[in-house]
Write a structure and sequence with these properties.
By secondary structure, the chain is mainly alpha-helical. The chain has one domain: Lysozyme (Orthogonal Bundle), CATH 1.10.530.10. It contains 7 helices and 2 strands. The chain has a two-stranded antiparallel sheet with strand order 1-2. It is globular, with a radius of gyration of 16 Å. The relative contact order is 0.14.
């Protein structure tokens, strides 16, 4: 039995839903549970939003979501309401002014930065505008969070997802 079939069989026994990347061009396998690497709903948003920008893959976008709020699962101020101590809000942790700037530049971004689909789409556009479209992934990540450690952590997480 192939590895993918074993994973699917194990998921069926446990009652989970599993997404498997059969072609090696997407995110890692993920069970649709609260402790899965990437929740299925978030994975769908990452996949859709990554397609809006050249050189942006879903693994990089998902890595940002993981580092920022564990794909919206973090139990801290600013993830689902309010703001954190730096003023950032939502699952992708945007400052309200930055989020509004992205909405003005990209009318396809909805108004609710706490909505995962909206926040992920805004993050994709922000990374794209910040350099990913030109192939400068490091520069775009540094623009997202001005920390060399952040950039390294996101890149390492993206490699793990790939």
């Amino acid at each position: 039995m192939s590895f993918a079939k074993k994973v699917l069989w194990g998921a069926a026994i446990l009652g989970g839903i599993v997404w498997i990347d059969h072609h090696g061009d997407g995110l890692v396998a993920s069970a649709d549970t609260d402790n899965s690497p990437i929740p299925a709903a978030y994975k769908a948003h990452y996949d859709a939003a990554a397609g809006t920008c050249p050189h942006l893959d879903a693994a990089l976008l998902a890595a940002v979501g993981k580092i920022e709020t564990d794909h919206g699962r973090a139990r801290m101020p600013g993830v689902h309401s309010g703001a954190n101590s730096a003023g950032a809000a939502g699952p992708m942790q945007f400052l309200p002014a930055t989020f509004q700037t992205m909405r003005k530049r990209h009318p396809d971004i909805g108004p609710d930065q706490y909505d995962p689909e909206t926040a992920i789409k805004a993050a994709a556009h922000y990374l794209c505008d910040s350099g990913v479209a030109k192939g400068d992934v490091r520069g775009a990540l540094f623009a997202y969070n001005h920390s060399d450690k952040y950039v390294a952590d996101v890149q390492a997480q993206a490699r793990a997802y790939r």
